[in-house]
TrEMBL record:
Organism ancestry: Bacteria, Bacillati, Bacillota, Bacilli, Bacillales
SUPFAM superfamilies: P-loop containing nucleoside triphosphate hydrolases, Signal peptide-binding domain
InterPro entries: AAA+_ATPase, P-loop_NTPase, Signal_recog_part_SRP54_M_sf, Signal_recog_particl_SRP54_hlx, Signal_recog_particle_SRP54_M, SRP, SRP54, SRP54_GTPase_dom
Entries under Gene3D superfamilies matching the protein: P-loop containing nucleotide triphosphate hydrolases (3.40.50.300), Signal recognition particle SRP54, nucleotide-binding domain (1.20.120.140), Signal recognition particle, SRP54 subunit, M-domain (1.10.260.30)
Name of this chain's protein: Signal recognition particle protein
Primary gene name: ffh
């Protein structure tokens, strides 16, 4: 899991001071020593670490007193705010040209994920922003690169502009932009050549394309797994070409986090998007504050909610809520809820966004098994209508029949019945609590 070591260490440090009613300078010093180590271990640039620790220390010692927080919580708040700031503060938006098409140049070293990201970004622009992007294959040095972009285009059902590998990239860009104007594409995404390392030829060509196409954005794609190398690459590209933002790929891997935390501060250019997997929908806008929460174990609840909103039918959600309140929740509802959760993506990914998730030891190994869900579904489908509505009628012989019918075991049937009972109890507690204004952590009912 990305940021795991950093998250563990920072959360350990925070745990120590969380409840403290008083915090001395020595406490802050001690804490800052651990924060410093945690950041260095996560491969964050040492200058960045130094500045960060200095800022947090100053603010933590000279805290204005807020009544609603304990001193321990105030220090945590400072750490979170500064982490957010370090990653760019506000979420940064993608440019929109006043005179369409908006032109985006995608640059980066080979293997960083440039071509994949170009496809993902076009997909996002179309799906989320209702745009009509044109993809441009301008990497003529690696014939496979053109094919790769064409494959991506086919997969997404998006047009790809290509003139083969005998025409110069500058000419390709020029003609692509003309075509985009004619055909009313509002975004042009130019996939430029990548090399194994930065050299003058590459930069020269990129500068030529930049000069001709006058792009609204130049996105540098870097691989988060390469840590400080990614930061150095960003610095070089920015100096030579001037970039407008960074896309950090492979954040789904177990990167220590150094690149994510250093790039903004070193290059003064924002991280705009993060790649979270190989699939074409695995690109997310980068939210510094959410990322900071995630690192500090406060959970990325907002992203989770957004994901849920994108996938859950609102009408149905309301209906479900009503049922939960009136306690008329049945196994049929449960089945439907399972279906909706499944649409949100693999369960272990969702779980990782929950507050305290990286405290749950072995979550990575746990691999919340989507197969398990299939079993649960099979069990429910083997129940009669009456059993689904009134599970208390399910006696021993019915359990045997259900297990047989669903190809599972009696133990599994028992477990599900028990979980369902527990879940109903929990719902009762929660709906009872709402009136009193108390909060309790939500749990995935069937975990
Ligand atoms: N896990 C994961 N893999 C990714 C991500 N982004 C890209 N990849 C993978 O990284 C590999 C390289 O991606 P490409 O898009 O081919 O790289 P490129 O930078 O275009 O390389 P060139 O075309 O050679 O310049 C591919 O196997 C991608 O599937 C990501 O966010 N997560």
């Amino acid at each position: 899991m990305a940021f795991e070591g950093l998250a563990d260490r920072l959360q350990g440090t925070i745990q120590k001071i969380r409840g403290k009613g008083k915090i001395s300078e020595a406490d802050v010093k001690e804490m800052m020593r651990e924060v410093r180590l945690a950041l260095l271990e996560a491969d964050v640039n040492f200058k960045v670490v130094k500045q960060f620790v200095k800022k947090v220390s100053e603010r933590a010692v000279g805290q204005e007193v807020m009544k609603s927080l304990t001193p321990g919580q105030q220090v945590i708040k400072v750490v979170k705010e500064e982490l957010t700031e370090l990653m760019g503060g506000e979420q940064s938006q993608i440019a929109v040209s006043k005179r369409p098409p908006t032109i985006i140049m995608m640059v980066g070293l080979q293997g960083a994920g440039k071509t994949t990201t170009t496809g993902k970004l076009a997909n996002l622009l179309r799906k989320k922003h209702n745009r009509k992007p044109l993809l441009v294959a301008a990497d003529i040095y690696r014939p496979a690169a053109i094919k790769q972009l064409e494959t991506v285009g086919k997969q997404l059902d998006l047009p790809v502009f290509s003139l083969g590998d005998q025409v110069s990239p500058v000419e390709i860009a020029k003609q692509a932009i003309e075509k985009a104007k004619e055909e009313h594409h509002d975004y042009v995404l130019i996939d430029t050549a990548g090399r194994l390392h930065i050299d003058e030829n590459l930069m020269g060509e990129l500068k030529d394309i930049k000069e001709l196409s006058n792009p609204d954005e130049i996105f540098l794609v870097v691989d988060a797994m390469t840590g400080q190398d990614a930061v150095n690459v960003a610095e070089s590209f920015n100096e030579a070409l001037g970039i407008s933002g960074v896309v950090l790929t492979k954040l789904d891997g177990d990167t220590r986090g150094g690149a994510a935390l250093s790039i903004r501060s070193v290059t003064e250019k924002p991280i705009k998007f993060v790649g979270m997997g190989e699939k074409m929908d695995a690109l997310e806008a980068f939210h510094p504050e959410r990322m900071a929460s995630r690192i500090l174990g406060m959970g990325d609840v907002l992203s989770l909610i957004e994901k849920a909103q994108a996938n859950v039918d609102e009408e149905k959600a309301k209906e479900l809520e009503q049922k939960m309140r009136t306690m008329s929740f049945t196994f049929d509802d449960f089945l439907e809820q399972l279906g909706q959760v499944k649409q949100m993506g693999p369960l272990d990914e969702l779980l990782k966004m929950m507050p305290g998730a990286n405290k749950m030891k072995g979550l990575d190994k746990l691999q919340v098994d989507d197969k398990q869900i299939v079993h649960v579904e099979a069990i429910i489908q083997s129940m009669s209508k009456k059993e689904k509505t009134n599970p208390e009628v399910i006696n021993a012989s019915r359990r045997k029949r259900i297990a047989k019918g669903s190809g599972t075991s009696i133990q599994e049937v028992n477990r599900l019945l028990k979980q369902f009972e527990d879940m109903k109890k929990m719902m009762k507690q929660m709906s009872g609590m709402q009136g009193k204004g108390k909060k309790k952590g939500m749990k995935f009912p069937f975990m």
